[in-house]
């Protein structure tokens, strides 16, 4: 069965005024949908039946002849993770084990947010900034285009999309304003905490829409 575009984990108006319904209509309803459609088309053309996007990403990441499939699958997975990385009325600082590990690995929560914002701002062109668990240590990383920490053996905890279509309707060219708003008002620390718990057991959360319907 083909992959399906997952529903947003909140109403399309729920992130306003920080992320508008118009942005979500374009970003989720057009861009993300197009990636899912491309994955299904390329798998069907090749006669392949694969059960998860992670399997597609792993199988195509090191083969340039499958670059189109990798890009579509990785972007499908990245976007699903990004939607879950935001929540209405979220942002600010995490609590519990997550904030303790952030403080231990970065020195302070502010040091983490400075690094995260620098990664998001320092990504030239399109890409992503991530908080990841790298074999038990939390780190900030950035990836260009469709690249994802999954191919580096890391467990993502939180992500921000810095492709222009993620923020241009609402922020125009003010990427910094978008990044600051993400950290202050949107970052879903409950989701990041669940990812950290899974990473401790050597697992990752299975996200809706990342397995074939």
Protein model, in words:
This protein has 213 residues and is mostly helical. The protein folds into two domains: 64 residues, Helix Hairpins, CATH 1.10.287.990; 105 residues, minor pseudopilin epsh fold (3-Layer(bab) Sandwich), CATH 3.55.40.20. The chain contains eight helices and three strands; from the N terminus they run αααααβββααα. It has a three-stranded antiparallel β-sheet with strand order 2-1-3. A hairpin with a 2-residue loop joins β1 and β2. α1 packs antiparallel against α3, α2 crosses α3 and α5 runs antiparallel to α7. The chain starts with 20 loop residues before the first helix and ends in a 13-residue tail after the last helix. The model has no long low-confidence stretch (mean pLDDT 97).
**So, the CATH homologous superfamily of the largest domain?**
Iron/manganese superoxide dismutase, C-terminal domain
Average residue-wise pLDDT? 97
The percent range for helix content is: 40-55%
Instruction: Give me the number of helical elements.
Output: 8
CATH class of the largest domain: Alpha Beta
Structural topology:
Blueprint: H1 21-46, H2 53-60, H3 67-84, H4 96-106, H5 109-122, E1 127-134, E2 137-144, E3 155-161, H6 168-171, H7 175-186, H8 189-200
Antiparallel strand pairs: 1-2, 1-3
Write out key terms for the chains shown.
mainly alpha; Helix Hairpins; minor pseudopilin epsh fold; 3-stranded antiparallel beta sheet; 8 helices; 49% helix
In short, what is this structure?
The protein is mainly alpha-helical. Helices cover 49% and strands 11% of the residues. The chain contains eight helices and three strands.
